[in-house]
Specification:
The protein is an alpha/beta fold and about 475 residues long. The chain has three domains: about 140 residues, no CATH class; about 100 residues, Rossmann fold, CATH 3.40.50.720; about 190 residues, no CATH class. It has a six-stranded mixed beta sheet with strand order 3-4-2-1-5-6. β7 and β8 form a beta hairpin. α1 crosses α3, α4 packs antiparallel against α6 and α10 runs antiparallel to α14. It starts with a helix and ends in a 7-residue tail after the last helix. The model has no long low-confidence stretch (mean pLDDT about 85).
């Protein structure tokens, strides 16, 4: 069975990891103390002394690899996650090794001759070689799975949208090595086929299929209307000892990846994952906004001063145009811009978006709009906390009311602070462009936020975000 094969493979992987640790360690010793970087052999500790340390280092690293989930099945584990775990395990390992050596050698003569840089080489070599080893193993496994070996045999219970999506992904990724033997369902006719997977009977057939012990997994993919059967099916599967997983059919209710949290033993499914709802993430982003806005205000103060002078001398009226926008948690705030239009009445302002060759826009205002220089006063909105450097662009209240009825999930954008620039803007959705596409990009940003993504958007804004062909 697959379970036995997995155990044998894990044992082999542990042996390979042990050999990689030894090779990395020996290579680091040779390079620093015997090879091209060796500079002075006087007082160097013996080869035997360093090699004895492997008695402790190898088991330590294997335990750390286990602790950092490096022996979990590689069918669907991402390479970046695996590399991240390798780096973290090696970082913890080298810190423990350093601490151990200093404790043992702190009162001995050997401490003077102990090579710290050799262990730095070991740290680098081990990360590189461990990643290479895993890439080779991953490639080998995917190759044999594509040829039909090392397969994991699965039965689906319930024909639903979730079942179809699950089949789609497995068919698109034969390297995962999943073989779907069929679907059991009470409402779909036997013999019905979806992408080569047949409905082979009703759910009652589980009673006869499970005792044959020819399955590695049962995937419960019931439709929402059939969840009342779930308890009985899970009970049957658990009694058989077959690994069982549940793929909920909530695609129409929860359109993106949800996440669960434990409420004193009660699992709670959150409809949408918003990284910035995490207090630490929100603090980091706010700190970046404060520091970034202050730096930008200092750097761009000459540009803002020149823009202010041009606005003042070319048309009468205030330098700064204030307009009500909707921000975080649907709270309204006054957003600042350099004034780019002739002074208007309140009713004239509500007429709509600016059109091409709009007579309300001044000549200087047109230039400021095209180059996004009119947005610079929003740095003070960022400093105040009304806005962020990066986030969905805020809209006027009347448009929020309009779009909340017309565009599904529009209001989700208000779960984070609005931004001066955003993922939609750097992808070309600014000004008179598709509001639906803009919302799609805003939702992607909200659900996939990282500090790295913010930095990427800021760089893209500098290189291709300032000039806006859709700004009139």
């Amino acid at each position: 069975m697959i379970k036995d094969n997995q155990q044998h493979f894990n044992r082999l992987h542990v042996v390979l990891d042990g050999l990689v640790v030894i090779v990395s360690y020996a290579l680091a010793w040779w390079l620093k103390l015997s090879g091209i970087f060796a500079s002075n052999h006087v007082g160097v500790l013996s080869f035997e002394f360093y090699m004895k340390a492997l008695i402790f280092i190898v088991p330590l690293y294997l335990l750390l690899y286990y602790a950092f989930n490096l022996y979990t099945p590689k069918r669907v584990q991402g390479r970046r996650l695996e590399l991240s775990n390798i780096i973290m395990a090696n970082t913890v390992g080298i810190l423990i090794v350093f601490a151990g050596f200093f404790l043992v050698l702190s009162y001995t003569e050997e401490a003077k001759n102990f090579s710290r840089s050799m262990f730095a080489y070991f740290y680098i070599f081990n990360i590189v070689l461990e990643e290479v080893e895993r890439l080779v193993v991953r490639g080998f496994l995917r190759s044999i799975r594509r040829r039909g070996y090392n397969q994991k045999h699965i039965l689906l219970v319930g024909y639903s949208k979730a079942a179809e999506q699950y089949i789609d992904r497995i068919k698109q990724n034969p390297q995962w090595g999943y073989n779907i033997r069929g679907i059991l369902d009470d409402n779909i006719a036997r013999g019905t086929v979806y992408k080569g997977v047949k409905v082979i009977g009703s759910i009652e057939n589980l009673t006869f299929i499970l005792p044959e012990n020819k399955l590695d997994e049962i995937a419960i993919t019931l439709g929402l209307e059939e969840y009342y059967k779930l308890e009985k099916i899970v009970s049957q599967c658990e009694k058989s000892g077959v690994h069982t997983k549940f793929i909920p059919d909530y695609g129409n209710i929860i359109p993106t990846r949800p996440y669960t949290e434990d409420l004193l033993g009660l699992p709670v499914i959150n409809i949408r994952y918003v990284p910035l709802s995490n207090t630490f993430n929100a603090m980091i982003k706010r700190l970046m906004d404060i520091v970034g806005s202050i730096i930008c205000i200092v750097i761009f103060s000459p540009v803002m001063l020149l823009s202010a002078i041009l606005v003042k001398i070319t048309s009468s009226g205030p330098l700064i145009f204030k307009q009500e926008r909707v921000g975080l948690h649907n709270e309204k705030f006054m957003m600042y811009k350099f004034r780019t239009m002739y002074v208007q009445t309140e009713e004239e302002e509500k007429k709509g978006w600016t059109q091409k060759n709009d007579p309300r826009v001044t000549k200087v205002g047109g230039f400021l709009r095209k180059t996004s220089l009119d947005e610079f006063p929003q740095l003070f909105n960022v400093l105040k906390g009304d806005m962020s450097l990066v986030g969905p662009r805020p809209e006027r209240p009347q448009y929020v009311e309009k779009f909340r009825e017309e565009i599904p999930r529009y209001m989700i954008k208000h779960q984070v602070r609005p931004g001066m620039t955003g993922w939609a803007q750097v992808n070309g959705y600014r000004g008179d462009t598709s509001i639906r596409k803009r919302i799609e990009h805003d939702l992607y940003y909200i659900e996939n936020w990282t500090l790295g993504l913010d930095i990427k958007i800021l760089f893209l804004t500098v290189f291709k975000g300032f000039i806006n062909k859709n700004a009139y």
